[in-house]
Amino acid sequence: MTPYKHKKKKKRPPMPSVEEVKALIETTAEKWADYLAMLFVLIFCGLRGSELRALCWADVDFKKGLITITKRADRWGIVAQPKSDAGTRDIVMNATTEKALKEWKLRCPRSDLGLVFATSRGTVQNHANLMNRFLRLAQIEAGVTKQKVVNDKGKQGSKLVAKFGMHALRHFCAALWIEADFSPKRIQAMMGHASIIQTFDIYGYLFEARMNVEEAKDRAEAIVMRG
C-alpha cells in the first residue's frame, strides 16, 4: 500500500503591503513621474509584465473605463496574442489610473506600434530595463528593501536591495480586489486565470481571511428561520 502523502503547503505569493505601495507611489510621483501611470496600471489593473509591455492605446477605452488585454510581448520584444483564451480579457480602470494614463498620453514617446509604454524610440520595453531603471531604484528610494547577502572578493557582507519583482505588484492587485469584495469569478477573469481553481490555489487564503465563519453561520440560519 502506498503511504498517504500530505500535499505540500503552497507558498504564499510575495507582495508589498499597502504602506509599501503608498511609499512607492509617493517616491515615483516625486522622482520617476514618467513611470507613474505604469505603476498605477500594475498595482490597480494587475497586468503581467509581458502584457504591460505590449499594451496599446487602442486597447485603452477611456469612455468605458476598460483596459482590454489582447497582446503580450516576449523577452525579445516580439508581440503576439496571449498564451491562452483567458489571457484576452477586460480589466476595469479606476479614476486614478485613468487620470494618470490620460496625462501620460499627452507626453508619451511616439510609437508606430501604438504602445502605451514604449521606449524613447517607440519600441517595446525590455523587462530588465524597466526593473533596473525604475522599479528597483524606486523601491530602494522608498525604503521598500530587504537585506541580501553578498560575497565580494571572498568577504561576505550584506546590502539593501529592492524587495519585490514586478509580478509581486500583480499579486498585490489581486489582494486589493479581494479586499474590495470583487467576486472570485470576476477576479479570475480580470487576472486572466484559465480556471477558478487557479485563482483559489494562489489566493484562497485571502478569501478565507475575509470570512467570519460565526457571522456567516448566523446569517445562513437567519435567512430561513427569521422572518
Can you tell me about this structure?
With 227 residues, this protein is α+β, with helices and mostly antiparallel strands. It has a single domain (18-223), classed as Orthogonal Bundle (hpI Integrase, Chain A), CATH 1.10.443.10. Helices cover 47% and strands 13% of the residues. It contains nine helices and seven strands, in the order αααβββββααββαααα. It has helices spanning 18-31, 36-45, 49-54, 95-105, 127-142, 167-179, 184-191, 196-210, 213-225; strands at 60-61, 66-69, 72-73, 79-80, 89-92, 145-152, 155-162. The strands form three sheets. It has a three-stranded antiparallel β-sheet. A two-stranded antiparallel ribbon has the order 3-4. It has a two-stranded antiparallel sheet with strand order 6-7. The termini are far apart. The model has no long low-confidence stretch (mean pLDDT 93).
Structure, briefly:
By secondary structure, the chain is of the alpha+beta class. It has 9 helices and 7 strands; from the N terminus they run αααβββββααββαααα.
> Which regions are unreliable across 5 or more consecutive residues at pLDDT < 50?
none
Structural shape: globular
Largest sheet: 3 strands, antiparallel
Provide a count of the helices: 9
Q: Helix and strand succession?
A: HHHEEEEEHHEEHHHH
CATH topology: hpI Integrase, Chain A
Mean pLDDT: 93
CATH architecture heading: Orthogonal Bundle
Fraction in beta strands: 5-15%
Classified by CATH, the class is Mainly Alpha
